[in-house]
Amino acid sequence: MQSKLLLPALVFRSFSIQCNNDNKSDTNAKRKMPVATASHMSSAKTIADNIRTDSSYTILDEALQSTGFIETLSQSGPFTIFAPTNEGFRKLPPGIYESLMQNRKRDLANILSYHIVASSMKTKDLKDGEKLRTLAGEELIITLRGDKVLVNGIEVINPDIESSNGIIYVINDILFPRNQNAGAY
């Protein structure tokens, strides 16, 4: 029981410290938003295990499990995943995620496979304008702006989280393949 109470307290404390540090610099305070940290992640765990153990990815974990991609991300890889946080999924219009989970698993699998590349790529390996082929068979376009990485125009908020079978890039949005009408969501 104590360990169940300790974890939320530690998360709250970490978030409070981060918020206080962000306010020390006006420039940083304007540029930073709450970021999913890699505090529960370990380079000794697979991408799947890291996603399962971090509360910032409960929706992604549920979606990966329902489509079978959690097993893919448990294999040796290597993989790179642009992992949407819970906040990213919440940006979908009301009812869309539920509809994908209940009635449109093929669409959900297509969307999720568009977040996964079958190679391990760190930021230092990426080039501006580079195209990465995803498991969906379509390409993601990388943009480098100073120290920022964007994927299809979406900013990576936490890059280069190492796992035993690849790399996790945290994003706060959902990537839609061209063959999926993002406007319908």
Describe this structure in words.
This protein is an alpha+beta fold. It folds into two domains: 1-29; 38-177, FAS1 domain (Roll). The protein has helices at residues 2-22, 26-31, 47-52, 58-67, 69-72, 86-90, 96-103, 105-113, and strands spanning 79-84, 116-117, 131-133, 139-145, 148-151, 154-163, 166-171. The chain has a seven-stranded mixed beta sheet with strand order 2-1-7-6-5-4-3. A hairpin with a 2-residue loop joins strand 6 and strand 7. It starts with a helix and ends in a 14-residue tail after the last strand. The relative contact order is 0.16. The model is unreliable at 1-37 (pLDDT under 50).
Provide the fold topology.
Layout lengths: L1 H21 L3 H6 L15 H6 L5 H10 L1 H4 L6 E6 L1 H5 L5 H8 L1 H9 L2 E2 L13 E3 L5 E7 L2 E4 L2 E10 L2 E6 L14
Parallel strand pairs: 1-7
Antiparallel strand pairs: 1-2, 3-4, 4-5, 5-6, 6-7
What is the β-strand count? 7
Helical region count? 8
Identify the overall geometry. Answer: globular
- In CATH terms, the superfamily of the largest domain is FAS1 domain
Residues in β-strands, percent:
15-25%
How many whole angstroms does the radius of gyration measure? Answer: 17 Å
Averaged pLDDT: 79
In CATH, the topology of the largest domain is named FAS1 domain
* Coarse structural class: alpha+beta
Query: What about the largest sheet?
Result: 7 strands, mixed
Number of domains: 2
User: In percent, how helical is the residue content?
Assistant: 25-40%
- Uncertain ranges: 1-37
Give the terminus-to-terminus CA distance. Answer: 41 Å
Order of helices and strands: HHHHHEHHHEEEEEE
Spatial ordering of strands, largest sheet: 2-1-7-6-5-4-3
**CATH secondary-structure class of the largest domain:** Mainly Beta
Q: Which architecture of the largest domain would the CATH scheme give at its second level?
A: Roll
